[in-house]
């Protein structure tokens, strides 16, 4: 299955796309809230935007006000200040001004807040749904459908979660979503390797290295594929990139497996088996 000949996505099975919703929220890459295609940029209070982002990640779940204080004002011990009320009021004003009854609803319940996303399209919600659908299909041995969903997962991952923004909870969520994207890419790479579709496999390898430049197994895969094509210069080039990345970023050398693979390929010997990775 090549990149051009990949499984056709069935709109009915994948659900409605973002174009069907007047209110759209994106957290993958830079944060954007859009209404009828127009970005919302004015958040009034300083923490209103951050509050909305955190509630968006925890959509549909009640978040206690103490937790919100810990996330938004980690340097403060006093959870009795009015800062949270000010931020909540600002979020509500923004949502009231930009929405016409559809999209997001912010509720106050049992000393906490809950954000409902009925009527809005949220990229992280679609991203998580696509991966879970893919994993379920894979377990059911419906591999064609699984690949369709994993491809959808990869397409939705347009960049790291809240790129350019900082915070402990942001870093944790970013790592989690990056890991999910990597698992989907691993399944896509494995599928195309098994069918010996080198162009598609190289495409997924490139996507993997965009997210994890030190993923040694991906360099091994690229070396093996170029060896199969008789492109020994490219084999050596990818080995050098791998060694540089591992040394510079992690302070380690390539594994013995990588060294043995390089020696075998440069001597024209048959390829070494690579470990297949399945979604977990």
From TrEMBL:
Entry's InterPro entries?
Answer: AfsR-DnrI-RedD_regulator, BTAD, OmpR/PhoB-type_DNA-bd, Sig_transdc_resp-reg_C-effctor, TPR-like_helical_dom_sf, WH-like_DNA-bd_sf
The record's PROSITE patterns line, in alphabetical order, gives: OMPR_PHOB
GO biological process annotations for this chain's record?
phosphorelay signal transduction system; regulation of DNA-templated transcription
For this UniProt record, the keywords arranged alphabetically read as follows: DNA-binding
For this protein, the parts annotated as crossing the membrane are: none
Q: What is this protein called?
A: Transcriptional regulatory protein, C terminal
Which one Pfam family would you cite for this protein?
Trans_reg_C
Family, according to the entry, reads as follows: Belongs to the AfsR/DnrI/RedD regulatory family.
The Swiss-Prot or TrEMBL record marks DNA binding at 16-117
**Ranges of residues in domain OmpR/PhoB-type:** 16-117
Asked if DNA-binding is a keyword of the record, the answer is: yes
Q: Which organism is it from?
A: Streptosporangium subroseum
């Amino acid at each position: 299955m090549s990149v051009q000949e990949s499984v056709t996505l069935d709109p009915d099975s994948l659900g409605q796309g973002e174009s069907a919703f007047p209110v759209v929220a994106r957290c993958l890459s830079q944060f954007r809230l859009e209404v009828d295609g127009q970005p919302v940029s004015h958040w009034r209070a300083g923490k209103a935007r951050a509050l909305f982002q955190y509630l968006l990640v925890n959509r549909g779940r009640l978040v206690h006000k103490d937790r919100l204080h810990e996330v938004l004002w980690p340097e403060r011990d006093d959870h009795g200040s009015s800062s949270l009320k000010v931020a909540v009021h600002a979020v509500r004003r923004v949502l009231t001004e930009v929405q016409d009854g559809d999209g997001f609803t912010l509720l106050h319940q049992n000393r906490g807040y809950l954000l409902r996303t009925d009527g809005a399209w949220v990229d992280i919600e679609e991203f998580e749904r696509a991966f879970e659908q893919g994993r379920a299909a894979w377990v059911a041995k419906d591999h064609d459908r699984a690949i369709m969903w994993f491809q959808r997962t990869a397409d939705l991952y347009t960049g790291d979660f809240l790129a350019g923004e900082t915070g402990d909870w942001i870093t944790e969520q970013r790592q989690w979503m990056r890991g999910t994207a990597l698992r989907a890419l691993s399944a896509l790479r494995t599928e195309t390797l098994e069918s010996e579709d080198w162009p598609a496999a190289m495409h997924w390898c490139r996507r993997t290295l965009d997210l994890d430049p030190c993923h040694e197994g991906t360099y091994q895969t690229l070396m093996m594929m170029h060896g199969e094509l008789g492109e020994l210069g490219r084999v050596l080039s990818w080995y050098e990139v791998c060694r540089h990345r591992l040394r510079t970023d992690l302070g380690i050398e390539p594994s013995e497996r990588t060294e043995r693979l390089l020696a075998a390929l440069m001597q024209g010997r048959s390829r070494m088996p690579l470990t297949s990775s399945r979604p977990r």
